[in-house]
Amino acid sequence: MDYRKFNNTIIVRIDKGEEILGKVKEIALKEQIKLASVSALGAVKDFTVGVFKTDEKQYKSNDFQGDYEIVSLIGLINRWQGEISAAITLWETNTHFTRLILFVPGDARYKQNRRLCE
Known about the structure:
The chain is mainly beta. The protein has one helix at 20-30, and strands spanning 2-6, 9-13, 35-53, 58-80, 83-93, 98-103.
């Protein structure tokens, strides 16, 4: 990973194989970010998607492997109970479909599955 800071804007390059959300959290902690918006483009090969089923009070996740292009990644970073939390929405596409994905790292319900690689 490499990043540069320009006033209140940070530009990041996340290298192949690095965890996107892990790197976002790393930068947020290092730069003491309390609130920020996030946007990105790129590609993924291995990622976990999930949703918290409120009626069941359980987190459901699925792992995917293959070639997926990120056509849009947007979200927010904030502090939740003193910890970094991020709500990130990712639209990805392969040759067949597009999927909406929500990640919320920092929230204890989601900590076990917040991997988004490459």
